[in-house]
Specification:
By secondary structure, the protein is an all-beta fold. The chain has no helices and 17 strands. The chain is globular and about 40 Å long.
Length: 173
């Protein structure tokens, strides 16, 4: 929402806040579901790497998290190509602490601010923090682990704009 307003220096570049939100003190139970949070292109900036902050109300175990651009056609939650897996401390699984946040490692990913970004995560347990209204953001969901599927079907729309994904940062060389 405030692209480029906050930054931290990294090796040979700057981690720049592309978008973030503050939760509204409510939560949603997503154990056994895949969430696809669609972040509008208008909230993004160009860069060579991306990292994502996940936020939970209770400890939330996340065996799979992926990021990718949205496809130009099809469902709004379709990836345009094979998504990039996010790592957490070098691990493919994440455990977001109760009432806390967890930041992914920065991964190579060319962020195109002309395309929507999708963060897809499967939650095996726990409750995420959420926000009801956030312009342009939408959350889609389905049962089971479908996090890496490029062209999935059968997703429903959450009543909440954003679940689990609280912040996206882009590395600008």
């Amino acid at each position: 929402m405030l692209a480029g307003m906050f930054a931290t220096r990294g090796q040979n570049g700057i981690w720049t806040l592309a978008t973030q939100w503050a939760h509204d003190e409510s939560y949603a139970n997503w154990a056994g579901f895949t969430l696809r949070v669609v972040i509008p292109a208008s909230a993004l900036i160009a860069g060579s790497r991306v990292r994502v902050t996940l936020s939970a109300e209770s400890q939330m175990d996340i065996p799979a998290v992926y990021v990718g651009h949205a496809a130009a056609s099809g469902d709004v939650y379709d990836f345009e190509s094979t998504p990039t897996r996010l790592l957490f401390g070098g691990n493919t699984t994440a455990s977001v602490p109760a009432n806390g946040d967890l930041v992914s490692d920065g991964v190579s990913f060319s962020v195109n601010p002309a395309k929507n970004l999708i963060v897809s995560a499967y939650a095996s347990s726990g409750r995420s923090r959420k926000i009801t209204t956030l312009p342009g953001w939408t959350t889609r969901y389905t049962t089971g682990n479908d996090a890496a599927t490029v062209n999935p079907t059968g997703y429903l729309t959450s009543a909440y704009a954003a679940n689990l994904v609280r912040k996206v940062e882009v590395f600008v060389p």
